[in-house]
Amino acid sequence: MRAVFTLFLFPVFLTLAAQESPLFQVVDTSSSEQCLSQTFCTPGILNKSRSRGIDIAYNFLNGGMIRPEQSQFQERAGQLQSLESIIVKVKVPLLLKPGLKVLAGFNYQPETYTFATIPDAGVSSLATLHFSDVFRDIDTRYLKHTSLNLYAMKPLDERHYLGVRFRYASNGDYTGIMSFRDRYAAYQATIAYGIKKNKDFEYGFGLAFSKNFRRTIVLPAFFYNRNFNSKWGLETVFPAYVNGRYNINNKSILLFGYEFNSRAYSIDIGNRRSATESVFHLRHSELLFGASLERQIVPWIWMNIKAGFQVNLPTQFDAQIPGAPSYEFRPANAPYLRMGVFISPPDKLYRR
Question: Which of 116, 180, 254, 314 has the smallest CB count inside 10 Å?
Answer without folding.
Answer: 180
